[in-house]
Amino acid sequence: MNAMTHSMRSLLAALPLLSFVSPGCDPPKPPVGPLPPAYTSNQITDPALLDVTEEVQTWTSQQADDGQKPLYSHAEVLSPVPIVQPYGVGVFQQEVRLPVIFTTGPGWNSLKLAEKEAAVALAYREIAVRLQALNHEPALQPTLTVQTPQGMELAWINRLDPGGKNVHGDD
Questions:
Q1: What are the DSSP calls for 110-152, one per residue?
Q2: CA triplet 61, 64, 70: central angle to 5 degrees?
């Protein structure tokens, strides 16, 4: 009986050790391939829209003043977001917009106010034309923000002002 108790105790003591060894006996699992992004709400996943994003950033980097100083030091295109636009008293409409943020560069300060207005209007139209070519339904519209390197907002455009006053705080 004593020998049986001793062997039973030895077996019970060995069981936890066997649990450490047994997972190593499983056949190797195949490697997991690349996984899709888990959270895509803040990413642009449409390949055509990614192309437009790259085109806008390239176009922005080519804009310069007469002295060939860049007008914009940085362009950032964020993922499309739904926004609510007011259209009168108590009337609202939801739209999906593409936020685009330009940071002014060294050439910006050399422009006169009228030239700044023209540059911002040209940038907005350039982005809008590229988005129209995507043929999204409903049409994807840009929201252009122009800011200084310090973060001061100079323009925030959902639609061009018919009076031509789109740049603020840079008079």
A1: GS-HHHHHHHHHHHHHHHHHHHHTT--SSPPEEEEEEE-TT--
A2: 60
For the record, the structure tokens of 17 come out as 């050790």
Q: Six-digit token pair at 160?
A: 């061009």
Angle, nearest 10°, between helix axes 113-132 and 47-62?
160
The residue segments making up the domain with residue 51 are 47-157
The CATH number given to whatever domain includes residue 74 is 3.30.300
Token couple for 39: 């959270």
- Rounded CA gap, 112 and 118, in Å? 10
Helix or strand (DSSP H, E) at 159? none
Structure tokens at 5: 């108790």
Task: Tell me which of 55-59, 105-109, 126-130, 159-163 is least confident.
Answer: 159-163
Say if residues 78 and 124 touch (Cβ distance below 8 Å). no
Assigned token pair, 54:
């790259």
Instruction: Calculate the CA dihedral of residues 25, 30, 31, 35 and round it to 10 degrees.
Output: -130
Residue 129 lies in a domain: yes
Q: pLDDT tens, 126-149?
A: 999 999 999 888 889 999 999 999
